[in-house]
Amino acid sequence: MMVDERIIRFLKRHHVLNLATVSDEGVPYCAACFYAYDAERNHLIFTSDDTTRHAREMEAHPEVACAITLETRIVGKVQGAQICGRAERGDEEDKACYIKRFPYAAVAPLTIWAIEPSFIKLTDNTLGFGKKLVWNSQK
Description:
Blueprint: H1 5-13, E1 16-22, E2 28-38, E3 43-47, H2 53-60, E4 63-69, E5 79-89, H3 92-101, E6 112-124, E7 132-136
């Protein structure tokens, strides 16, 4: 099933996701990460050093969640995506996409990660109060 174009536009327009991981003991953790979105592959691509807590937790438990939000006080403009998926090491195509979005990253040593979503829910009040668009890879 194709991702709704309105969800794709939202994901492309933003650049920070809040990543949720879990430890071996079941303790949750959040980290904010700059991301690029590859619509063709449906990948959310970000970088994280292997020494970070969230990278270690993704390595052990690749099922993650993340949220991307538009910060606003205007109720009619509220937008936000909640995403569940699997995080894995990114490949060269993912790296190229990330560097295209953030060219300054080309000079840094990068450990690229990609989340392949299995579920995306976009709440978009610009389409009507409480309007939700849902994409699920299982359907």
